[in-house]
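Hello, quick one for you while I still have it in my head. My current little project is about how a certain protein chain folds up. You're getting the sequence in one-letter code plus the fold written as tokens. Would you mind checking whether the tokens look sensible for this chain? Here's the protein in full, and shout if anything looks odd to you:
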Amino acid sequence: MMGLWSSNAMKGFLGVSCSAVTCDYVPFTAFLALHEMQKNPTAAAVFAEYESVIEDWEINKKVREKVRILPMKEVRIYRTLIRHQQL
């Protein structure tokens, strides 16, 4: 999970956490990183910073299923499609 926010001094931050399940099916959440971002970062800069956290923790080597990152617009479209299929 990724979160973006700014301080009162308008400094931007990117926080990255993950949720998973152990081999014994015990759920857990871990906070992986907190990085200060440049002012008004582009989507590409945010994604690059996120990717660097994934590489630092070697998550791509540890995760068995593919993880897809959806922009909020795609999430809204996906939810709308799901709602219409349930009618």
